[in-house]
Amino acid sequence: MLRPVRTRTQYPVTLYSRYIINEPNLCHKGKKVSCLVMVHTAPAHSNRRFEMRRTWLNTSHYVPEHIVVIFLMGTVKNQTIQQALHDESRIHSDIIQGDFIDSYRNLSNKGVMGYRWISENCRNAEIVIKTDDDAFINMFKFFEKFSFVKEEKRSFSCMKSGKNMAPIQRDMNNKWGLDKYMFRGLNWYPFHFCSGIALFISPDLFPALLHAAYTTPVFWIDDIYLFGILPSKLLDVKYIELQQNFTIDRQKGLDCFRQKEHNCPYLVVTVKDGFVEELWNIITNG
Asked: CB 3.0-4.6 Å disulfide test: which of 52, 72, 161, 276 passes with 57?
């Protein structure tokens, strides 16, 4: 008779693991930190990082606002890529690399590393933006019309899924499919959570989120774990809905910027190669 496989409860490895590349002093150079932008990226995505630094993450465009940027990633077996990362780090001083395999199933570990790094090194940020390397954020619009989120405490401002509104996928062929033993007996996720493409997090939450990770087994779907399960362990966490200011339709976002320019309501657009440059040119030259 076959016995069910028992697996040891696992917690995020990045709670304790070392940093391979670290920049612990980025937020402590005598200036206020208007905004910390924390980008989830993959080691091989150097072209995306260079494009972001050249356009909307070129912090010189937002003076007198002081923006700090970090790119979070794990390890890679390819030593050519790893050496390129060390070279990139020496040039830009914005890479945070943890000692865990960079993979889709480890995105929650990457996020917890970000929570830990901020708790250790950047408690003085006025707001934290978490984003992916396939997103474009109109930072001019953020500082002009959305800086009110800086005044919110214990809050996520994001494209939100409400409590008991997002279905749990049970089809194991689905990218996010879960077997029947996970969230047993439930058909809907029983908490609010945010889309991880981009969200705005009040800095006062990070120590509490990190503390919650010490007692909350890691769950591999990062949006659910980082922005749903962990916050659900805390009291008085607020979710501010920015759905109308996001689009995951790349072409729709590009058309909106082309046609409406500064009146386009989108703050966040998902992108692919070539879109970042085009969006940036419209914003800065339109």
From this structure: 52
Pairing verdict, β 155-161 and 193-201: antiparallel
Could you give the maximum distance between any two Cα atoms of the chain, in Å? 70
Looking up residue 88, the CATH number of its domain turns out to be 3.90.550.50
pLDDT tens-digit map of 112-158 = 999 999 999 999 999 999 999 999 999 999 999 998 999 999 999 99
Is the separation of the CB atoms in 95 and 73 below 8 Å?
A: yes
Per the structure, the count of domains in the chain is 1
Indicate the helix (H) or strand (E) that contains 277. Answer: helix 275-285
Buried b (16+ CB within 10 A) or exposed e, 249-266: ebeebbebbeeeeeebeb
Is the residue at 197 inside a domain? Answer: yes
**Bridge partners of residue 188, in order along the sequence:** 167
Helix (H) or strand (E) holding 32: none
Q: What is the pTM of this model?
A: 0.94
Range of the domain at 26: 13-161+193-246
> Tens digits of per-residue pLDDT, 182-197?
999 999 999 999 999 9
CB 76 within 8 A of CB 43: yes
Strand pairing of 128-132 and 35-40?
Answer: parallel
CA dihedral 226, 115, 240, 126 (to 10 degrees): -170
Measure the CA–CA gap between 264 and 276, rounded to whole angstroms.
16
Domain membership flag for residue 7: no
Given a contact cutoff of 8 angstroms between Cβ atoms, the answer to whether 49 and 96 are in contact is no
